[in-house]
## 1
Amino acid sequence: MNAEDARSWVRAARHIVLLSGAGMSAESGVPTFRDAQTGLWSNFRPEDLATEEAFRRDPSMVWNWYAMRRGMVLQVAPNAGHVAVAAFQQRHPGRLTVVTQNVDGLHQRAGSPGVLALHGNLSEDKWLDAPRACCEVAKLRAGSPPSCSTCGNLRRPAVVWFGEMLPLAQLAAAEEAAAACDLMLVVGTSGVVYPAAGLARCTPGRVVVLNPHASDLDDAADAVLRGTAAELLPVLLED
Ligand code: BJW
């Protein structure tokens, strides 16, 4: 199967789900999650930093890792893949739902409506422990991380770490969309993290994997296209 054949599936599909992972943003200049880290972070595996346990052990170190990534994301722009998805949604309202594992907000910045962000948002914070009456964002003590000036409760990134529940409403909407779609485009994910990867295994629709390298979801695919998001999506989603 080539991109032209997959395009005929796109044309025929009544409802499409696009499930994206970090590779979706690679051509914007955002390193993928499982890429080797550089500089200060080269001795750490992202899998070991993205946990509540790591944050409680060394809040400042984990906070600074997220601060570095926030700064990086602010300096990049959506790529041709994000733009092609948003343009398709504008031409075909209600026909394509974006379900993303990414926390970088690039689908939203490209103009995709109703993005289901399963792993939260890098740009937002929340309280580490259940907030008490004294915990007010307006009265934070500055720091890395900031904290409640009265009880010391810490702010943390509003992302979903390993072992944490995904936002229930977004997950339910994603499961519903996956159950109702006739085509799922799985773009730029290693397919190792659940429950997100499970969406591609449960859908009754055809599954097309778009990835330059092998992924754990290749065996669930009706077709695998070896290429990048910014190369393939503009071709696939062209009218
Ligand atoms: C390109 C490209 C280009 C390069 N174009 N492509 C079932 C079985 C086994 C385990 C579990 C299970 N269910 C749940 C679990 C546990 C766990 C899990 O999945 N573990 C596995 C790793 C084994 N899941 C969880 O803990 C989840 N929570 C949960 O299940 O709660 C229920 C529960 C709670 C309590 C008790 C019991 C149950 C939560 C998962 C949260 C994941 N969070 C992270 C961090 C977010 C914050 C942050 O960014 O720091 O999300 S982990 C990380 O992985 C991040 C990503 O969204 C996610 C997926 O990674 P992704 O996007 O696939 O990136 P990469 O780097 O892996 O892959 C990039 C791909 O792009 C590669 O394939 C490249 O080839 C490709 N690529 N350039 C296209 N240009």
Note: The pocket of BJW is lined by residues 21-23, 26-27, 32-34, 50, 101, 103, 119, 159-165, 188-190, 192-195, 211-213, 215, 228-229 (CB under 6 Å).
## 2
Amino acid sequence: MNKKRKLIIAGNWKMNKTVAEGLALVSDLKIDLANVKEVDIVVCPPFTALESVSKAVLDSNLRLGAQNMSEHNFGAFTGEICAGMLKEFSVRYVILGHSERRQYQKESDALISKKALAVHGASLKPIVCVGELLAEREAGQTEKVLEKQVRGSLVGLNKDQMVETIIAYEPVWAIGTGKTATTQQAQDAHAFIRGLLGKLFGEAVAKKVRVQYGGSVKPSNARELMSQPDVDGALVGGASLEARSFADIVKNSI
Ligand code: PGA
């Protein structure tokens, strides 16, 4: 496949994997994916496994991501984790505004944009998640919702920061449900997002930004999704918990 933007495929382990389980998974992935150079491969363990996994991936082509981060750099914020703490473990990417956090922690676009600025302030790369609910899609509101989330979650970013930001389009109705968006639905949403980035940050920036698809990505649908012109990778939940399926997603995407 010949795309100008390098694919980025990230495994979001969510609240799964003890340290021992995480180490077993990455040890298999390191072997399975050792020869892959065409894709940026990222694993996003829970905070408790970051230290061990960071040591395990040090000599490999796997990169480390976190699943969330505070918008503050230090201080009295019980239970939060800041950028400096993630950097100790060579974290490079931080998932922000996942739909589960938007839903359960009530994260707003305004908060996500503050977090994105904090991520860039530490020279890390945010993976900013956006996506519509089923009811919103059925009501014909998909583009309206995406526009609000994209504009609101990226407030204050400059062009250089935007180029280093990854967007994950994840239709909420496709997450963990086994229902994948059709390749056309995915491509349409991605093209819409890129068009909007063009308006907000300029065409040259929009052309460089990688937009991942997320929502029931599997080895069987990865190739077709990745073949779409505006789909530049995947954010994988369930299928990233097993080495074989995550490795096959990566290999099938090349
Ligand atoms: P899923 O999750 O692959 O299990 O649908 C995707 C995500 O939430 O990022």
Note: DSSP finds twelve helices and eight strands in the chain.
